[in-house]
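Justification of computing resources. Each target in the renewal requires a structure prediction run like the one illustrated here; the chain below, 417 residues long, is used simply to show the kind of job we budget for.
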Amino acid sequence: MSKSSTKTRNQSQSRPALRVGRQLAYVEVASSELTRDINRDLILEHIRAHQPVSRVELARISGLQPSTVSSIVEQLKEERWVKEGATIKTARGRRPTQLTLNDELLMLVADVRPHHAVLAVVDLNGHFLSRRLVPLPSDVKKGCEVIADGMAKLRDEHPGKIFEGVGLSVPGRVDPGTNRLVLVPNLQWKGYDVSGDIGKRLGLKVELENDANACLLSELWFGHIDGLRNVVLIAISEGIGAAILAEGKLIGGGNGLAGEFGHICIDAHGPKCGCGKNGCWEMFASSQAAVRYYTELRPKEPKPTMTELISKAMNKDEAAVAALTRQSEEIGKGLRMVTASLAPEAVLFAGDITTFWDLSGPIIERECKRGLLTDGSGPRLLSIGDGELALLRGAAAVVLQRHSGYYRSAHARPRTA
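Resulting structure tokens:
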């Protein structure tokens, strides 16, 4: 499984330096521990992709020695990530047992929005076993209480199951060193120990991650972008978030702030953004922008929710169609800076925008292509389907990514069963 946690400054300084011209380039030294970690992730991914699968098949698929595969499998079994099932009949020798991901191991996850949170129970295969929506108060402490209470009720619905941890997909940026929000314009949670609060209430380790990063991790784990090494994921709901996969590595940047394209100013005279600045891209291309466009066209009508606006558009309401069309045009225009700076092979879209992709997709592609620097066809633009489910699976993928490897994140704590 791909690792997204960034290296600390001390770790970077301890690497040997390779002089390239006048610059010093730091290179990673391959240790036996790092090799073991990579092999472990490889085996876990192959089990996920090929289950049920035997140790013999894993050795053939991975190219690793049978003894190495067996050692890793035993560790994964001991930690409850995988389990053994039926045996296979063979012409001779021992009957190999089949390995699968452990469907008894579950995760509590949440897609957190400014006014509500969607909670769910997810297994290692990304299957949803329970789900509920809870309204969120503006006070962060009360919000944590509401989320924890809702998750406790979901956990009670699955007696006898093992819960590995909690994953929260949040509309902001998370410092990988502290597991706290450092930038969250649309939610008043900055600096509060959300993970510590909810973790204490549930007795489980809690992981926070930016919603776009979480979605991209989900796509990596569940195999939807196999073979692609340069991808940008854009999550569009109340705000705009982005995640970057460059040369096969998820880019976090300093303090986890990489990918904040939504807060790049595109019109200094535009509306004031939640970040305090004027004219940010998300003020023209987010769901709240689409709702604003509609109210400008129909000022005497009640302000709709985004779901209501999409429903109106599906029923051929001209103002609703015009509002979503304008939003899609602004997304495409802003996407030009993303493609010019990163040159991705594909751009994935998550969040509210996916629910009216038949309308928005062609408009976004048209506007994006107008800004291409070359005569090429540009990146593929892909909707990853149900935005809500993608965000919840993303929260689950964060728990998987941070809990299943040898190298724990800087804020790792012992697991509570």
